[in-house]
Amino acid sequence: MAAVTGATTDEPVPPPGVVARDEGRRTVAEMLIVLGLSLGASAVYAVIDIVAKLTAGPPLAQQKATLNAPKAARPYLDLTYQLTGIAFTLVPVALVLFLLSEPGRRATRRIGLDGRRPLADLGVGVGLAAVIGLPGLALYVAGRRLGITVEVVPAAFSAYWWTVPVLVLQAVKNALVEEVVVVGYLVTRLRGLGAPTWLTLGISAVLRGSYHLYQGFGPFVGNAVMGVVFGEWFRRRGRVMPLVVAHTLLDVVAFVGYQFVGNSSWLH
Description:
Blueprint: H1 16-36, H2 39-54, E1 64-66, H3 75-89, H4 91-100, H5 107-110, H6 118-146, E2 151-153, H7 163-192, H8 197-210, H9 217-237, H10 241-261
Parallel strand pairs: 1-2
Helix pairs in contact: 1-2, 2-8, 3-7, 4-7, 6-9, 6-10, 7-8, 7-9, 7-10, 8-9
């Protein structure tokens, strides 16, 4: 009985250039699918929303955008909806972490979404939050004065025992979705395709600004600038955790702080 020494195949081996082009097309298709399931869809809806606001009749400055609104009149049903919405919104984060995983290397380690440097990440996060937060607030106030920004209502919940914890969870959710998808995932994939730095940062920043357009043109500019800063930090340092910390802090201050200063006239 003859031994089998090997296997043959009649399929031709494609040249390296063809393989690279096929992988590039698959990567682009993957990015479009991920964004279509997450913040790309949000950007499209935000564009539609700003067009609707501009054509609604009242000036942009007289309109509102509520970020965290009740979903039911009954408190515990509202709580259930809020927690369920947070959980399902985080699914794209799980998806991109799955897609970025490599043999022997977890995706969380690859993009720096881990707890290896807690104190350093916290310090950088606080610093980034201060650098972005104060100019962002000034830009919002200026936008309101110029009439290019709607009145943003960060939270419209009644005062239940779970209001603040849910707002904090919303802040963490926003930070994870935006920083993992728009920075950690998108920048990694674009760099893998060989995109130049200016294009990589530009795409990430414009996307970030676009899904905030429903708030007006001031937040679009502010978030686009934030996108450039955060994208460049990740490009240089390779860690997304400080960005998650910074974003969480910004949203916690906005959401929870609104309970105390939301009616102050200088914000409107």
